[in-house]
Design goal:
By secondary structure, this protein is an alpha+beta fold. It has 2 domains: 2-74, Beta-grasp domain (Ubiquitin-like (UB roll)); 83-152, DNA polymerase, domain 1, CATH 1.10.150. It contains 5 helices and 5 strands, in the order ββαβββαααα. The protein has a 5-stranded mixed β-sheet, sandwiched between helices. Keywords: 2Fe-2S, Iron, Iron-sulfur, Metal-binding, Oxidoreductase.
């Protein structure tokens, strides 16, 4: 086991991880960040998405020790009034909510890279995330709304 540190949602956290421990498990079990979830276990659904240095990572595939010293953003670190979170709530972009944290973080990544994406760019950026409830239209509307609101404050 190795002692490693992350900065998770702005807070420095010391954890212990073995060479085979997954970032998802360390974040959930040691840090207490439960928004990243295991959906498929093979990095294909997006439920485990976290942002490391602003870039999306499938935490169900990532070895925890590899990210020693990294800045990690999880969806539960975003305030309820964050423009993306608020847009998801306003548009009803969820049913069960299991996949939504991954979609929120993918939207955050997209809007940082491209503050005014087209609908096609939104769809393309989110294509690696799966919503089994089928709220894709609402999710796309939420990202469009968040983009509008964030652009208005720039």
């Amino acid at each position: 086991m190795s002692e490693i540190e992350y900065v998770v949602n702005g807070t420095r956290r010391a954890v212990r991880a073995g060479d085979d421990d997954l970032l998802l498990d360390v974040l959930r079990e040691q840090v207490g960040s439960t928004s990243a979830r295991e959906g498929c276990g093979v990095g294909a659904c997006g439920a485990c998405t976290v942002l490391v240095g602003g870039h999306s990572v499938s935490s169900c595939l990532a070895r925890a020790v590899r990210y020693d010293g990294a800045e990690i953003q999880t969806a539960d670190g975003l305030p309820p009034d964050h423009p993306i979170v608020a847009a998801f709530v306003q548009t009803g972009a969820m049913q069960c909510g299991y996949c939504i944290p991954g979609f929120v973080l993918m939207a955050d990544e997209l809007l940082r890279e491209n503050p005014r994406p087209t609908k096609e760019q939104i769809v393309a950026h989110l294509e690696g995330n799966i919503c089994r409830c089928g709220t894709y239209a609402e999710i796309i509307a939420a990202v469009e709304l968040a983009a509008e609101r964030m652009a208005a404050t720039r």
